[in-house]
Structure formats: structure tokens, C-alpha cells
Amino acid sequence: MSDMIRMSRRRLLASGGKAAVLVAAAGIAPKFIRPSRAYAADALAPGMIGGPTGFDGSERYQYGPDTPEGRAIEAAKAMKGAGKAPAKIVLGLSDGSIGQLTQPFPAGAPSIKDLWEKETGIPLEIVGVPNGQEFTKTMQDISTKGGAYDIYAVEWNRLGDLAETGGILKLDDFVAQYKPEWDDPERGYVNGAKGVSLLNQYRGSTYGVSLDGDFQTWVYRIDLFGAAAEKKAFSDKHGYELAPPRTWKQHDEIAAFFQRPDKGLFGSTDLRNQGWGYTNWYQRYVSMASPNQFLFDDTGKPLINSEQGVAATNEYIASLAHHSPDAISWGWPEQYGNFAKGGAAMTCAFSNLPKFLDNAGNKDSAVTGKIGSMLPPGREIDGKLISRSVLWLNLSASVSSQAKNPEACYLFLQWLGSSRIYAWMTANPGGYFDPFRLSDFSDRLVRQTYHAYHMDVVRETVARTVPTINYPGATAFHNALDENLVAALTKAKTAEQAMVDTEAEWKKIARRTGEEKLLEAIKTNKEAWPTVLDPIS
Amino acid sequence: MSAVTATIPEDVMKTVQAKPTLRDEGAKLGFRLTLPAQILVLFIAVFPLLMQLYISLTDWSPLSGLGWWSAWSLWNNFANYTDLAADARFWSALKRTAIVMIICVPAEFLLGLALATLFADEFPGKRVFYSILLMPMMVVPAVAGYMFFMLFQSGGPVNDILSAVSGFPVTIAWLSDPTLALIAVMLADIWQWTPLMFLILLAGLVGVPEDQIKAATLLGANPWQRFVTIVLPKMKTIIIIALAIRVIENFKIFDTLYIMTGGGPGVATETISVYIYKLTTQDLIWGYVAAIALAILIVLSIAAVFAMKRMARTREVTA
User: Fold this and answer.
1) Residue B153: what pLDDT?
2) Tens digit of pLDDT for each residue in B4-29?
3) What is d(CA A429, CA A449) in angstroms, rounded to the nearest whole number?
4) What is the C-alpha separation between A296 and B271, in angstroms, rounded?
5) Chain A 3-62, CB below 8 Å of chain B: which residues?
6) Most CB contacts within 10 A, which of A37, A142, B165, B265?
7) Chain A partners of B68 at a C-beta cutoff of 8 Å?
8) Considering only alpha carbons, which residue of chain B is nearest residue A327?
9) A161: how many CB neighbours lie within 10 A of its CB?
């Protein structure tokens, strides 16, 4: 992010999101209201020093002293005891995510905020930031030395930009001291140290703590794909079975097959608008070579002005034929709203789509019980299938250089982003933070909220996900690509011209940013790209 | 009679000339008294300008990790200015801003003048209509932008009305089409700011002397003649003020446009304000932004000087 959003589109995004969250919360929360089965009203399990209580299974989110959560809490308590704790920690957070920290979940549980304050005695003040304006607000605070927040939460790929400003702190010493265990093989990040490097680090140092899992995930309508009449009509026309597409060619054929605007049905509604659409171009582009079609080569030369770049752009333009006529101005509120009405056969969105829309409590959803998940479409190259998704938006939290007590801020982030507390938080339907840790995918509460069928696919999608640009100047790079792609979509430019112009812009941005700085960041970024190749079956 | 001439000695002359007059004393005192304020004004106006010039000659940005005073280490040999000269997006944004201005301001002026003429006379319900007419101006531009964003959706009220009128389904994707999106933005601007034009022009209209109008009527002038020969000349100053306000404001068009289209699709509705906003808050290339801002300042200053000279000449001719 684009935009939201841009947006106001941003207002729509915020209000639409909040509405979805409330509806979802209303629907899901009752599932967990089983006071009679609560573990114990206010008791921790033996050996545990902290964590939530008051609901069935709460012991799974409790922690002992030698855990990342436990170490963070103990250190914060000690700080408080020694009179060195800050009067409060101020966290700037997207409006749409606040609910997961402030709303108790499930019934009988405390809220995340209450638990932190109760265990450490350090008040947490959460200041809402409009969705889509996280980076702008953060940059304002940094450049004006406003000091309005101790902790920023912005899109993960802005870490490079923020680190270069000097506005966020390097966290290496705290990481070494308090051992967050982000690369734990059982409970840590997908792809271990590689995943940690991708989400939390910039040029080899830790600057952030991931609080999100925005691995773009594909969903489809099982009722449409399973209908006998549809299956027959499709196989008669194309000569193969109607099933979730494995390749982009199949995807485009299936989307064209289901494109029935007169009946209120679109083939595939992965976004095409400014600020978001280019992430779907990414998926087509990066799967053009094995194991990946990169954006830059090792010398920092852009690779998009190429046969692959033009082909991906032409595909991207052609895909408008099986989309809404408003595709270019649709943001995700329109996308989710349309899917909820049963208006699309397939789409690609945040992993929370089934949480909100495959939800008996959401009376506005016509697709409850009708959603299936699938891996991203790919391409056959050298006898293997290259299937790639993209990591886009994904909030990461960083400690402000202006924070009164950086250590306390880090301790809070270690606690919040650790496996037990994060799983408990992400299961809460009151906000946008999505699962991303190995322990999240197997967590019972998370699987109930997000659906088991979806979680397994999300986990596999994560392993096939490429990062967006996270070098300094990330926003400028993305904007240049984004604007040229929209120009191509609107026929203001040819696909070839769009790629030529993007390359020219990228070279200019690289010059302004500093080529040396970029080379190192490009190299680090590449190390996080997936290498999974699937068999063609 | 012979003329008597007296020669004043040179040293006396010098003393007389060197002796400060009361006026000189007053000027000096005035200068001393206003010096603190002048220094402050100099600091407020000139310092940022010099700083902007300095930054515009470098690749400095907040991402550089350097304070602005260290921007010299990122000196770029006037690259921002050469980039600007070759920046097609900048020139097209400038052109688009001019197009919006050339269409919106006259439209608002003509509509405002027509409405003001209507409201110059009494009629039943005038107060109610007057209030209704002023309402768009009171809407927050961001809200107006959102309203028009919803109105111009392909399934929105505008297409519904067009469908009802034409008798067949209209699903124009207004905001996804580069030309239609710009038209939609201009319609929103005209809707919102015609009332301001109307208000200013109505004030001018009611200020036209009634006796001259009556005299002209008695002499047989028809309404059009009265309007052209009496009303318009009398309103000249207020018309210039109204147009100036709207031209300046329109050049800065941002909120409504940004919310309706974000400058899109692509950059199809991107005006200079939106372009600068994106470069400043998203791309963070502040050195380049400083160069753009300076270039615009110079262009606008030259335009303002020409306009003021022309106005002064007009006043001289009129006098």
C-alpha cells in the first residue's frame, strides 16, 4: 500500500473494514462463549508466570519464565520495580487493528491491552492512525520530531525507508539480550531465519517486529466449481476438468468462463486499482522464470523492461475482461463486498477473507460455507510449476528514535509478537492482524476463526510468497510501477511503453537513493525469495 | 532692476545639506522601531526560500539520514532541474491543472453570475433557495469528494439517472476512464464552488447604484444594455477579485480530486498539487519537490507581475 488507500477511499476502507470486523466478531465470538468450560477463572497453569485466563484452552497462551513472553514480562516488571519504567507506552496503530488489542476475546478473557498493563503495570496508550496513512503519519512524526508515538506500526516494506531516516531504532542489542526466538522451528516464522530476515530486518539488522501476515491468498467458490452443470459446460468447452486453476492460463480461462456481468458474476476480482493492483501484477511477473523472475539483477539493473515484464503486463491488461467494469477504482472494501454478495468466482485477498465472509454470523454474506482456498496460479517451466504469491501490506512495529524508553517498547513488542500472545491476538476477529507464525497455523482458536481449510493453504502460500520491494525508496519504486501499470490498463500507454517508463523512473530513483545502498538491500531482499517448485500433476 | 546674487560659502552649504531633516529623523526612527519585525519577516519569508533553493540543488530527502544542513554532501549538479525539464508527468500535471482551471473557473463565473442576476430581485421563497444554493460551499471538500466518488460509481445514481432518461442500462465506468474521471472531478468542483462565485457577485450586484439603473431605464435602455453598460463596469473590481480567488484556489485543487480519484486512473487526473503531494509524502524526494515548488513559484510570480501591470494599466485608462 495505495492506494488505499488511496482514498474518501480510505474512509470507505476504514468504515467497511470496521463493519466487517464487527459483524464477524458478532458471529464468531459466540462460538467461544463457554464459561462453564473455562480453564480456571483467574488461575495460571502450573509453572506459568503469565498469560490470559478465564476461557477454555487459555493455558495454551500462557508462558513460563524461560519463554520470549516470559522474559519480556519479567524484564518489564523489573523495570517497573526499579522505577525506570516509562509513564506509558504510546503505540500508533491502524484504526482497523486496534480491536484485537482492546476487545476481550474469547468470552471471559481479558484484552491484550489489559493483560499487558496488569502484568507489567506499564500503561499502554493506543493512538489510532487512519488505515492507509500509517507511513505518512510516521514520516510526519519523524521529520517534525513530533514524538507523538513511542512505537510506529507501518507496512513491513517501509522498514528500509524508516531505518534510513534514523527515525526508528536498531533493535539488535535487545534481540540478543531477550531472545525472541522468532526463528524457532516449531513456533517461529515460516522459513526460519530467512523469514525473520525478510519481515524484521533491514541490511542485516533488526528494525521491526512483524505483527501481521498479509500473504495474499487465493479463494474460490466451491459451489460454482462443484456444480455439475458448470463442470460439464466447462470441460466441453476447454477439454479439461473444472477445478481450482494451477496455471495462469487455466485461471484466465476459468475466469472468462464465469464472467457473467449480466447475472452479477465476475470471473476473478483480484484487485486492479491504484495502490493495490500492482501486487497482483507481481504474482504474474515473478512466476515468469524459475525459481523466480526478479525485479533487479545483482548489479541493480531493473529487469522489468523485458520480454517477461511486457508479457506479464499484457496478461494483466487482458485480465480486465473478466473483472468488474469498475475494476480500476475498486479497493478491497468493494472487492470484499462483491465477494460477500456472491459476485465473483475467484479472488485474491488478505488471508482474512474467509474469516469475515465464510461466517454464519455475517448476515450480509451470501457465501458462507461456499468458499474454498487454493494456491496461487503459476507457470510450467522446465517441468516444474512456479507458483508465487506476494507479501503486501503487512504491518510491522518499530521503536521510534524519540521513544522515552526504547527498551520498554521493545519488551512490549517482543511480548506482543511472540507465538503465544500473537496466536491469541490474531484469532480475535476484532481486527486485521493475520496469522503468519508456524504456531498460528496449528492453533485451534486461529483455525476456528480463519477456518482449517484456509489455514493449511495459507501456510503453503507463505512458502511461495515473494516480498515486495523493501529497499530505501520502496514507495517511490512501487508508485512508479503502479502508475505505469494503471496507465497501461487505461490504454494511456502500451505495455511496452509502461515498462520502458517504469525502468527509467526506477533508474532515477536509484540515483537519488544511492546505488550502493540499494545493491546491498536488493541482495538481502533476494535471499528471502522462495525456491519452492511444485510438481506438474 | 538688477538681480542680486549671493554666494553661499561651500562649507556652510555642506553643513546645511548634511543637517538631517525631521523627515530623515523620522525615517531612521521608523526603521529602528520596525527592525525586529522586519528581521522576523525576513526570517519567515526569505530563510525558507533560501533553504528551499539549497535543498533543490541536492538529492537530500528524509531517507538520507542527514540533517538538511548537511544536504550539500548530496549535491547533484542541478540534476533536479534537468529532471524537471524532462519530467513529462510534471508538465502533464501542469497542463491538466490549467485545463481544469480554464474550464471550471469560467463555468463557475457564468453560473454564479446568472444566479446572482436571478437573486438580485425579490421572489417568493428567495431565502430558502438562497440557503439551499449556498449549501455545497459549506460541505467539507473531503466529504464532497466522497459524495461524488459514490455518485459516479458505475452502479451509482448518475448512471441510474442516465438509464432512466435514456431507457436502456447505462454502466459508464466514470472514474476508471481518464477523460470521464477528469470530467467528474470538474463537475464536483463546479458544484461546490459556484455558490462562492454567486455570493461574491451578488454582493457586487446589489452594490450597483440604483439611480443609474433607473436613469438608463427612463432613457429607454433595455435590460441587456443596462447590464452591459452599467452593471458590468460597476462590478469590474469585484469580478476581478472573484476570478482571482477562484483561479488561485483552483490552481491548488486537491481534496475533492484526491478523494475521488487519487489522481488516477494512473495519473490521468493528477494536478500539480496532487503530484507534489505524492512526491512529498510517498516518494519522499524532497530535493526534487523543492525544485518543482521553486519553478512553480517563479512561473506564478511572473504571471502575477504581468497581471498586476495589466490591471494597473486598465486603471490608468479608466481614470
Assistant:
1) 87
2) 555 666 766 665 556 667 678 888 89
3) 7
4) 31
5) 3, 5-9, 11-12
6) B265
7) none
8) B176
9) 29
